[in-house]
Amino acid sequence: MKVLKKQNQKDFILLVMGGDKLTQQKIIILREKILQSIDWQCDVFTLFSKTNLGCKMGPYRAISWFFANESQGIVLEDDCLPSLSFFHFCDIMLQKYQNHENIGIISGMQFCTHYTKNFSQDYFFTKSVHTNGWATWRRIWENVAMDFKDFQGNFEEIIPLFISKKEKAQCKKIFDIWQKKGFEDAWDYQFGFHLLYKKTLNISPKNNLVINIGLTHQNATHKIFDDFFHKLTLQEMHFPLTDPKEITRDINLEIEYFKNFKKKNLIFRIINKISRTFFKKHIFK
User: Distance between CA atoms of 30 and 16, rounded to whole angstroms?
Assistant: First the structure.
């Protein structure tokens, strides 16, 4: 995972996750190549792990270390490709809303560009949380917990946020599955729930600024064959930005997002059912 923080275009903070014995040497080589490629004057801070901490504690430890040293910054997953304007967009939003306590994260992803493309404003406020490429402040990351002590009780607190009973049921199902696993291989579900519980408004750009190029790779930890990710293309933002008229949640965007989410998942469930019947396995995971 890479975490970058830009200030006066000088500072660059890089975190590289540790690996197992089979990949340890490759990781060391990669670290050296990246460090050697920094040819401008700056201070470089690193956090190297001697062992693979996994997809839960690895990112959590790294992001916590980052925000212990910086008051705000940009977090970019290791298998994500950002557009050039992603960084400038995040930088503007971080400065503009740094004193707005109700703003959670700035996301680089927009799944519903077919809906947002005709709007004059360049970003929206939503409860939805997308963390492939994002930015936030230390105050938002503080108190994020990797294990829920009272998940069922806390879930009751976020029910009023859902746009429909179907969305509530779908969200509850996802969190129930991960809770039964002990959230053993995830950090982003916990963070997403934390933001829902805090009832933050999260910023979503008009154009899609980040694509995930690792989810369909044969060696990927988590494989997702979702049209949401397959059909996303990199776009750029145009500056100066046009702000929304009000700092308020865009319910229509959330409806559009959930409508597409449900449509794709229904198709995948049908295909998986057929696959289980004839081939005894899932095609989509």
Answer: 9
Residues with Cβ within 8 Å of residue 17, at least 6 apart in sequence: 1, 27, 49, 52, 53, 58, 59, 62, 78
C-alpha 103/C-alpha 134 separation (Å) is: 13
Give the model confidence (pLDDT) of 46-70 as tens digits: 888 888 888 899 999 999 999 999 9
Please state at what angle helix 151-158 crosses helix 188-197, rounded to 10 degrees.
Answer: 50
pTM of the predicted model as reported, rounded to 2 decimal places: 0.83
CA dist 40 and 42 (Å) reads 6
Question: 């597409």: which residue's tokens?
Answer: 260
Interval 68-106: pLDDT, tens: 999 999 999 888 899 999 999 999 999 999 999 999 999
H or E element at residue 204: strand 201-205
> 46 and 120: one domain?
no
- Same domain? For 259 and 186 the reply is yes
- CATH code for the domain in which residue 122 is found: 3.90.550
CB atoms within 10 A of CB 82: 21
